[in-house]
Amino acid sequence: MLVDAVTSLIKNYDVTGRYLDRDALDTLKEYFKSGTARVKVAAMINGNSADIVKSASRRLFEEIPELIRAGGNAYTTRRYSACLRDMDYYLRYATYALVAGNNSVLDERVLQGLRETYNSLGVPIGPTVRGIQIMKEIVKEMAMQEGIEDTSFIDSPFDHLTRELSDVSV
Ligand code: CYC
Question: What is the pTM of this model?
Answer without folding.
Answer: 0.95
